[in-house]
Amino acid sequence: MPFSFSIQHPLSRGFVAINGTSAFAQPVVDLRTLSNPVDAELYVDAIKFGRRVVATPAIQTLGPHEVQPGAQIVADDDLREYTRSVAGTMFHPAGTCAMMPRRLGGVVDARLRVHGVDNLRIVDASIMPIIVASHLQSTVYAIAEKAADMLKEDR
User: Where in the chain are the domains?
Assistant: First the structure.
């Protein structure tokens, strides 16, 4: 019985940085997954919750067995260590250029302008300071519509 756990609003923050002076060099991408300890605790709680669900009589009639992390892993520290070894994204990373004040690590202001750079805006999922708990596409469309209005206003 496969379970897949994900944190819809992680507190950990990663970064993307330029890698050298060549435009052809791959950027440095560090997701910093679980760098905020709260995220690891949420995963531990999710594993425990999943185990409680599987222990219900209705699910037990299906004969499930735990493969990972394994029923023998029960201590919070061990569950946390397991989580750190397997945690990843749900394939919709966002927030690498968060819209918030520069002093808090933000990259763009409320009008999507890059802090400290003239005539450059960012209009994509990277501006979301907190990821939405859904597919990103419709939210990115809304960001683009709002950006188009701002560009017309500022012209």
Answer: 1-91, 92-155
Kindly tell me the burial class for residue 127, based on how many C-beta atoms sit within 10 Å of its own C-beta (0-12, 13-18, 19 or more): buried
Q: Are 105 and 126 in contact (CB under 8 A)?
A: no
Helix (H, G, I), strand (E, B) or coil at 24: coil
| Residues shown for the chain | 155
Q: Please indicate whether residue 92 is annotated as part of the active site.
A: yes
Quote the tokens at residue 12: 């950990």
Q: Among 9, 65, 92, 135, which one carries the catalytic annotation?
A: 92
- For residue 2, give every residue at least 6 positions away whose Cβ sits within 8 Å of its Cβ, in sequence order, or none: none
Alpha-helical segments (H) within the chain: 37-54, 57-60, 76-86, 137-154
Residue 1: pLDDT band with limits 50, 70, 90: low
Q: What is the pLDDT of residues 68-122, one digit of tens each?
A: 999 999 999 999 999 999 988 776 667 888 899 999 889 999 999 999 999 999 9
